[in-house]
Amino acid sequence: MTLSTPWRIMIPPLIDTDIAFIALRLLIPLMVAGGLLLLVSVLPVRAADDSDVHRLDEIVVTATRSAARSFDVAAPVAVVDEKRLAETAPASAADALDEVPGVSLVRGGSWEAHPVIRGLGGSRVLVLYDGDREVNLWSGRAPLTPFIDVGSIARIEVVKGPASALYGTDALGGVINIITKEVDFADSDTWRFENTVNGRYASVDEGWFGRYELAAGGKGFGFRLGLSGRDANNYEDGNGDEVNNSHFENRNLDFKALHNIADNHRLTAAVRVNEIDDMGVPQKDPTAPFSHFDHFDTGSYKLGYEGRELGLFDEIQARLFYVDQDRAFAGYLPSPSQPVYTLKTNDIETSAAGASLQLTVTPGAAQQLIGGFELVREDSDSDETQVIHRNKDDSIAKRLTFQPVPDAERVHFGIFAQDEITIGNRLTLIAGGRYDYFTADADDVTFTDERFDGKSKLTSTTASINRFSDESDSAATFNLGLVYALTEHLHLTGTVGSGFRAPDIFERYSTRGGGVIYIGDPNLDPEYSYNFDAGIKASYARFRGGIDGFYNRVDDYIDTVRQAESFISGVPTYKYTNVQDAELYGFDGAAEVLLTANLTLFGTVAYVVGEDRDSGDRLSNIPPLNGTLGARWEAAAGDRLTYWFEAAGEFFDRQDHPAPGESETAGYATANLRTGLRMPALGPLHDVMLALNVENLFDKYYRSHLRLGQSDFIPEPGCNVITSLRFSF
Description:
By secondary structure, this protein is mainly beta. It is built from five helices and 37 strands. 6% of the residues lie in helices and 58% in strands. The strands form four sheets. It has a 22-stranded antiparallel barrel. It has a four-stranded mixed sheet with strand order 4-9-10-8. The protein has a three-stranded antiparallel sheet with strand order 5-6-7, with no helix packed on it. Strand 16 and strand 17 (313-334) form a beta hairpin. The longest helix has 21 residues, at 19-39.
């Protein structure tokens, strides 16, 4: 294979919008920020704390399974830290990823979100919660739906590019690890308590959020308890029109505890219960009276052990987890072409139980070995009914009953090892490998089609059985990485690796549909990929940044293909099939420059091309060239407070290379304005933070290209004023 073609860099024209007009739009927020600055100019000003200068050198764990500076990691990694989460006040973990270069979101309204990393999405991106694969149960999932209270998140780590050598299946595009706050005060000699209150209000959907958190500990024991609730109405788009069925309501409880049972030994436990009481699902016809999950509940339960400095082993980590989800959908779906409407209801239950062990050994000062295993069992069950009614008299015309996901299970075992060696003062090598084995089976599914006359009397019944078989998959994957220190402040990085994705329960065993039927294939081959990545990272006192170029080749890519024969009643039928060998290549990067002690310029850029290697057709759901550009002023007023102003613009080029069946989408640019202040103390309160953000400042009406089959009708939110307040006592 020659790399001359995959490595070619193709830079299309920038957005089809007048550059001067965009510049003017971005200048207005800066002028507004300048006016706000005058309001506090009477306060004595000094530079913000120097620690902010170095805030990009985060400690990360996901890329190597051990703590390391992001600057010293070979894999391309990005972090959204707790400081940034507090300032931007995102409504969900998905919103928090909006500014990460190379990460895009496929949305179904404001709350359902599928991540896309470097052009690969769906179950090709592994989403972890505190390192565990809680939500990767079936392809139709939305792993960034608010199953977790964003107020409990300490940081989000994103590894871009295949990470199967460490994490196994589903990590073809990358890994998103949502890491919650640690338990405090356990090492204190006396008991300590801290209460924290966090609130948020958003104008675009009149949405409110409130969270109370209690942290306590001492004498070797500690815990953190959080209670929260959220309620949001339908949001408005840039034209001021309400997007029907985009509402949301939930409540959450999270609890973490630890006990230091002896020196270098501790036990941990965690419980998270998230009850989504009402989550809207926007439809093509905005007049649909209702389309929503009337519940979408998650329960997560974990136990862990951590030991350090245990003879041969520097560290031992063992974890057990169990997670279950129960979601029920109800919708009134008008037909766009026939004088009928469908009342659809379904209930899908999924669960997973897992165990993992990780061992760390340091043979010498220049070497670290990490190894371990994971075992996960997933299962699912469901029921669905679709009743088609005639508009003229509401009589029943047809009723479909089936299981979109059958009574099925998948068992996954993986064993991995990684060796990190430092050679001299400049070169670090990382070599890793993993073996995964899967078994899967499911009960047969009967799909029933009942027809009725004009008086809702049953006239015929047709049934078809989708027969399934037991299947197994296995794969070995590898990863080779290097970090070469050109200087203390400039590192070259490179990785070569492979990725693996076993077909999930949904792709193997689904039977779902209505006007169109989709069925799974137990005989699917796994997807396998090879990835090459090269980059450069800079970490100076006044400049931080990096850029990576990548090439990813995926064999046996899975998609749905129209079948010549109908599964039942002549209804068009699509089947999951290994359809193509794909390749994706491009670049992404981020940088920030500290111009003065208070003023920072920052920007990001991302570009990816996805193609079928055989036909040359473009892959579907590939984001266009996109990026951000902004400026931030941060200063302190004596010891009383620190304040900031930030103005930024996001741009997306037009997608003029759509996949077959897709349409071109226009480019757009939006502007955001953020400001706020932090106070270390205010009377009996401490760690007080107040933020005011205006997103989509100019109320731009636009649609994202990444909407799957919905790109032509669901617009993004319009101007949104967000206020948030957090304090402790």
